[in-house]
Design goal:
heterodimer; A: 104 residues; alpha+beta; SH3 type barrels; four-stranded antiparallel beta barrel; 2 helices; flat; B: 478 residues; alpha/beta; Rossmann fold; seven-stranded mixed beta sheet; four-stranded parallel beta sheet
Chain lengths: 104, 478
């Protein structure tokens, strides 16, 4: 995947290697690096996986590995959780004497 | 200030070097000389700082009105009150009210804090604002920066080491970007503060911290509105106001606002989600909690050591105002979020409903004639809703089922109450927390040792903890 200079991309960079991390953190956190993601306009043409500079929305320059070209938001309403459905049915039955759900 | 166009490039960006510059970076980024309010070894004149650095209540209200912030509706929760009364002993079941803070421009009460912080940044001539937050405050600062024409950077703790993030935090990042802010996302760890300092130094922007006097004065309007609206609706001030408690600012500002209206008899109740056993800086625990704020992981350490925040002296000092502090379970909050939608027709985000869950449980223990105000709501949507949050938890191996809320083990299970009568507000030992606060203030910061404490410092500790001076001396000297 390639992109042109000026494309909106997302980069990732290691801020601190695990051995550089502060001592007062839990062991599981100290074992992994501190990583950072920012988005910005590519300062040059390139490929996914290249290390390049981007210019962020406030005009800062950050350098890192290109991890996404024209990044999207992937969050949603998740999988169906059947338990949620029953809460309203139960509450209405208690409050209204079952008139809305007398089939059960 | 003359800092607006200066961009400071310091070549030494190593961890130790940056942390050593912490105080000078902060002084330049907040524009407050905290040392001016400190005295002797550990003393700190909180009220003088709030008076001299902050804004008066009427100034706060004027700033917020000019940005479309505040003046949110107070809603009588008729169906939830009726439910509480059905489940209560005869004569019990207090009337519940809800302050619908989701109707602020950014979707939460945090707009109040951000409005004043961004106003101050603009007044001092800063070009932009930076805030370190994964929560609603980021969206609020971004929204206010958009409204007041400043640049904005939000620094958030977003992912675990596998690159997996809570849907709620991902949604907050989207919202910040929707308002034109730059979002810097990091993996778990307190070194976020180091990156935050680098950005402050590099940009010369204002630190729109949650914990400056501006951030706290901004919430006083919320307390004042609660007093005024309840007086208009019921003819008196409320018996209790329940505040979701994390960093302590929400409770502090609300209580101060109520006091400024003379609502001195109103009980201030803090409420946090019980996340005991989960470590806030743990990469593994990060995605095992289903609440990113409003929980004991922030509530307890910030109450007992308020100056652990991102400014030298926090203006959020909840133990000065709290009359009681209760915890609720994650499952109870999710359950009440659904109850609010199903019985009151209001779909609101889960984190803001921590106080609703506590208030519902408390209503069952208070007389019918009493009134309880749930002091906030927050916006909801993709990612920031019980369905994606429970779905994410289930994917991460958290057990979700109906049962007794007391069976919930944070990080392992989320227990939805089998019956709403099982909802409970579990009181924390406030006296113990106040004692710990005194000990922390003395032993963590007293350079000259406890023997050198002046009478004025003992008085400061008494104000902080609401103990008598004699009781404070007994804690310190035994």
């Amino acid at each position: 995947m390639t992109f042109k200079k000026g494309t909106w991309i997302r980069i990732k960079r290691v801020v601190m290697q695990s051995e550089e991390r502060t001592a007062q953190i839990p062991e599981d956190t100290r074992r992994v690096p501190l990583e950072m993601w920012v988005k910005g306009f590519a300062e040059q043409d390139g490929h996914l996986g290249d290390t390049i500079c981007v210019r962020t929305l406030t005009g800062r320059v950050e350098r890192g590995e290109v991890v996404e070209i024209e990044p999207v938001y992937g969050h949603d309403f998740g999988q169906f959780i059947p338990e949620i459905l029953t809460i309203g049915i139960t509450l209405r039955k208690i409050l209204d004497g079952g008139e809305h759900c007398d089939e059960s | 200030m003359g800092v607006s166009t200066v961009t400071n490039h310091n070549d030494n960006q190593g961890y130790d070097a940056v942390m050593k510059r912490r105080n000078e970076i902060m002084k330049r980024a907040v524009g407050i000389d905290y040392a001016a309010f400190e005295f002797d070894n550990i003393g700190f004149d909180y009220e003088r700082m709030m008076r001299e650095v902050g804004y008066t209540l009427s100034e706060v209200i004027a700033i917020q009105r000019s940005q479309g912030v505040g003046n949110t509706p107070m809603i009588k929760l008729n169906r939830l009150t009726e439910l509480a009364r059905k489940l209560s002993p005869e004569g019990m079941g207090a009337q519940l009210f809800l302050k619908d803070e989701a109707s602020n421009p950014s979707g939460s009460f945090k707009a109040r804090r951000a409005a004043v912080a961004v106003y101050q940044a603009k007044k001092l001539g800063y070009e932009g604002v930076v805030a370190a937050t994964s929560g609603n405050y980021g969206a609020a600062v971004a929204s206010q920066a958009a409204m007041q024409g400043l640049k904005c950077i939000i620094v958030q703790e977003t992912y675990d080491s596998k690159g997996q993030g809570q849907p709620e935090i991902i949604e907050k990042a989207r919202k910040c970007e929707a308002f034109g802010a730059e979002v810097v996302q990091l993996t778990v760890g307190p070194e976020l503060f180091y990156q935050f300092l680098i950005i402050l130094e590099q940009t010369g922007y204002f630190n729109a911290s949650l914990y400056t006097p501006y951030g706290i004065a901004g919430i006083e309007s919320l307390g004042a509105e609660i007093a005024d609206q309840m007086m208009a609706m019921t003819g008196r001030y409320p018996d209790a106001v329940v505040c979701t408690n994390a960093g302590g600012g929400n409770l502090t500002g609300t209580a101060r606002g109520l006091q400024k209206r003379g609502a001195d008899a109103t009980k201030i109740i803090g409420a946090s989600v019980d996340l005991s056993g989960l470590h806030m800086a743990s990469d593994r625990d990060f995605n095992r909690k289903s609440f990113t704020t409003g929980h004991t992981g922030f509530g307890l350490p910030f109450a007992t050591m308020p100056d652990r925040s991102d400014v030298p002296r926090s203006a959020a000092r909840p133990l000065r105002y709290m009359d009681s502090y209760v915890t609720v379970k994650q499952g109870e909050v999710f359950y009440m979020t659904e109850a609010l939608a199903q019985l009151e027709g209001m779909e609101r985000g889960p984190a803001g409903n921590v106080s609703l869950a506590a208030a519902f449980a408390l209503a069952m223990t208070m007389p019918r004639s009493a009134t309880i105000v749930v002091q906030e709501t927050e916006y909801t949507g993709a990612g920031k809703h019980i369905q994606p949050q429970l779905s994410f938890a289930r994917q991460n191996g958290i057990e979700i089922r109906f049962g007794h809320p007391d069976e919930e083990v944070p990080g392992n299970s989320i227990i939805l109450p089998s019956h709403p009568s099982q909802m409970k507000a579990r009181p924390l030992e406030l006296v113990q927390l106040r004692k710990r606060l005194v000990e922390n203030l003395v032993f963590a910061t007293a350079k000259g040792g406890k023997a050198n404490l002046s009478d004025r410092e003992i008085a400061f500790l008494a104000d902080e903890s609401r103990f008598t001076k004699t009781a404070v001396e007994k804690i310190i000297f035994g």
